[in-house]
């Protein structure tokens, strides 16, 4: 009996639960239906008056860590206060309504210390006070704005304000909790949360992005996310409906947009907007229009009022502002003085460079042509500006000035080509022009190589931009790829190897996935030098381009199975498999191989180098580090005998800086052969979250020099005797390969350099000015206003060196000096015709890095390497300004900060420290 009662209770409970669920569903449906019905209660013949306030405030971003970063300072901003009349002038059962929106006595308030409240606002005269106020019409259907109609002569800023008001009237007439709506901020994914029949909230969640595709907004960014910017937006709107009339009674909107430079997240700005929209009165009006459709009514309005209406969407119009509008703007002639050669690698040069780039982007071809004076000392720096400006007008002006058909004087054309290759935003017309010149060929072989490398680099940059903006691959890119691959296959005769290396380097700059099989094919040829260049090109490819089917070949190259490869090919192949998810079994095989070779005198250097390289990758990759540790345990290698370095070769990485934004680091690899340098590589990286960019890669290569450093009784290997003495430098900037610089070929040239003392004085190898960051975006706000972001990062650099060799004392001392001036400027502005606000955040620094090597080969070889960073300062300036056009009012708030960075000498490795101790044991300083 009790069991029957239990079943009855359970059955009754389920029935009640079902009824309750049905009640909740019906009730919620009723709420939605009520809202759907209420949005249709703007009745023809009535005028609904609202009090409207739109506020905008701007500031620097808050710190990433609340307990470490100081709070942001005071803001700049303004309020627009006005009465708003919403008047239905036409209504149809199926066609919706046409509502007229009219501003009544709008006026401006600005931030002021004279305000009754701290950081408050007060009235200020502006163009709003005497602006002609035109009506604004919207086609409103099912609670959504379908179209807008503005007077053609109306002020653009006022039209944008009216679009922000129209957006407030948008309330979904469906039962969807989440939907995509067209707003002034773009097509946004909005979440509805309905409390009851009269209250709801609308939210655009943080991290959600509104789509502005197809809108006429400026957009420019670096292909690598590390050198770009980040935008995070959030919008919250609280709506209350009138219980009497069913129209919108009260709306409170808050929106926050945070712009940050990816690599330096404290740089940027915040934009905080708010809107209040309150119903104050309802009256009657006989001002209505008749028509069978929306189009017919619009024509009737135009005919009866004499207005010329423009059909549009809710998207606000963006008005481009000049780079500099104030009377204190520096002129081109003033900035040119800062481009003097003695200012190279300083913040003074970098700052002037950025300002000139902005001016050149707005200048006409005739104005640019007047500044191009080849005999001027600043002409090379002007070429840097023209290349970075990224307009076809500047390119045309330069090409009229430079002569690419000289055989000897190629310094200036190469300087311009370098700037173009590093430009983050080259126009397609420039690529087309250079490709034509490439196919025609120029007399100088060196200039022709630079031309080919630049063409490939620009093709890659434009291809990546197309990918980012979801545009199809251009036909020109495919033509260039086909040209380079065909040219590579056509190399033959005595110059085949040199020819192949040129086009292999160009494929490194092109970075096309479809050329990967071609590069692997080159590895199977008997041309060792070409194989080295091919492997370097593969090494520069994105990891996703290296298909797993190539892994067995890479393993064979590393383990020297089958065909014999140069040690440089093998070490680069090791990098590729370490980067591409090396398995535990593969790593164990590599470690076991290195164990066998590290004690072999003939292979000690390359094995030591590979061992250090594996350890370096294991340190950076946690999963690889676990595999490495397990392999060492399994092979019983946990002894000093196995883990201590045997040769002079080494590979390691160190951090320059590490912050919450990311880190900057360097990687140094030195491969020795015959007790002297064979290859060294110094790479500088900037990383942020899951992305990285290689800012610099400086490679030194040498061969056939063992006889200069060998002991008298030590015989040279046959390979060392056969190779010609060769040395040179390869430089890759911003992942763009430049033309290699060969110091000498043959012992004759080497001895000539030694006896002449060439290079004993500091000599600049390469210098210039480039854009690191080039980011521009327009942010349409939910309130109808428009913000603009401009981020420019300029680097002025000078890479120099000197070498002193004494055959008498059998010593060699070299210095490689990297000096740079860096300026990062972030400008976020929200301009209208009646008030302009902006936040400028600038970081500037001058830094240097000295790499010295001292070699003593009097008795054996002792080498000491030193990497030092002199002390420097980082300066941060924040300026927040507000200006009213047509008025003397200008509010300016400033913050300044200087951060000292102490000098330091980097610890390289234990072996180097021991050798430095031996070399300088008699000197108290060391």
UniProtKB/TrEMBL annotation:
Residues 42-681 form the Vitellogenin domain. Keywords: Endoplasmic reticulum, Membrane, Signal, Transmembrane, Transmembrane helix, Transport. The chain crosses the membrane at residues 12-37. GO terms for molecular function: lipid binding; phospholipid transporter activity. It is found in: Endoplasmic reticulum. Coiled coil: none annotated. One of its GO terms (cellular component) is Golgi apparatus. It comes from the Eukaryota. SMART domains: LPD_N. Its main location: endoplasmic reticulum. GO terms for biological process: lipoprotein metabolic process. This is Microsomal triglyceride transfer protein large subunit. It comes from Folsomia candida. The lineage of its organism: Eukaryota, Metazoa, Ecdysozoa, Arthropoda, Hexapoda.
